[in-house]
Amino acid sequence: ANDFFALHSEYFAITLIASGDDSSALFVNSIYAFKNPGSLISAFLQQNEDAITNALNADVIIRNASSFFGTPLLAMMFPFSSSNVSGVCALFFSYESMSRLFNSSAFYLKHNNTSFMLNEKGDVIMHSDPAFIDKLSNFSNIPYIRDLLRSSNKNLQTQFVDRDGKKYIGAFQQLNAANVLSITTIKQSDVLDEIKKTTLRNITVSVIVIILSIFLMRVFSATISNPVEQLHLAAEQIEKGDYDIKFTYKNRDELSILADSFIGMANGVKNFERFSDKSIVRFAREGRLTLSGVPKTVSIAFLYIRNFKQLAEGMTASETVKFVNSFLSRVVPCILNSGGLIDKYLTQDGVAVMALWGSLGKETDEKTASLNCVRSLLAIREENFKWNKTRVIWQHEHEEMAAKDGHRTSVVKIGCGINSGEVIQGQMGSPQRMEFTVIGDAVNLAARFEGPNELFDTDILITENIMNLIGNKLIVEEMQSLEVKGKTDKLRVFAVVNEREKVEARTMREVRKLWSIK
Q1: Count of CB atoms situated within 10 Å of the CB of 148
Q2: Could you tell me if 517 and 389 are in contact, meaning their C-beta atoms sit under 8 angstroms apart?
Q3: Are 365 and 382 in contact (CB under 8 A)?
Q4: How does pLDDT run across 176-219, given as a tens digit for each residue?
């Protein structure tokens, strides 16, 4: 033993534990100045009985013993047998020489890599940062480490994102002995740095070559190709829905007349798009709309001004249109920005908007469509609050003028009914006059949930269908159940207060306070 320790100073002790009885043998390296090393080793082994049991089953087990002994030590346990005895051998050795290997690589120093080794429990037994070893760190709760520990692959690369949002590439290999997992991680940006530089150089060279080629082509064929190319680009712009055509060819010939026709056609289509949704225009332009309807699950919202008659009283026709357009200019962006499609404007008893989510050209799953729909209406609520505040402030600042002209500034209250369900989607009408829309019971139910806002003094009511889809993401208050035409049972009604993560309003009472602008 002394000769062995003289040649291998990194070993602290060797313990042989015979199976089936309490006999054991202990050999300790005298250069390690420990008081009662046998007692310390015995206590450590008692603390790690599970490792000894696993070692008896022909496994090789490694444990970090640094904190127990107060010095950098690892313990390796493995089975042994001789002619007359078998059991477990426990080696205690310093990991300082191994640790130096983890920190000596020039590549690691240059790229700030991290290398470490874990045992089957996720305990750190080797790390490029000694602090992780000394404090017996365990990485099993880190998601990508947990996946690697469970993986049946012996050699694997993976990508992951740390808590700071930085992307990393990790390579790991599971050693056959001791179930040790060796892992090296590196920032993805470092790995791809050289590739990016090479790619950038290639792109730069390619751009230069393309520019030179275009320049030479234009020099030799400008008089012929320029007008044709501009017309070609104009056709592509129109096909993509971009109607701001610019044509610089000034010669008055056939190409110039054709260019004027292109510009006129683009302006006509551009003006037409203002009367319909761009997605519908694009589908129609591509010939993807047919007279036959198709079933589709969508979210439907009907939005209207609750107190429109009161607000419009005393307004001239011009003032009424101006007021409605001012309201819609705040509503429409909220719908479109959330992926909604404005189906139509309704004018019965005031002004109302019918909008769809998850419909033509804006396909999403049912839950996402419903959530986008509710978020859009919450955004409209916020825009309406801001508008009301602006109108009331103007009233206070111009009180004499408003009184003289007979203007009365009242708070604009909105009401909305939202439902989700299967509808029939398609073109409705005749070949002479077509309209894209949806029909079905789900549409009717959304429309009928619009009116009860007056009864409950609320602004956004949703059906039980919406509640079942995204109720866990919303703060709602259940209202009195309603009898609805065409339905045998009363229907549950829910008023939307806010999204759960929002803090501006947590009850309908707080929402109603916001309507009282001061």
Answers
A1: 22
A2: yes
A3: no
A4: 666 677 777 777 777 677 677 778 888 888 888 888 877 777 66
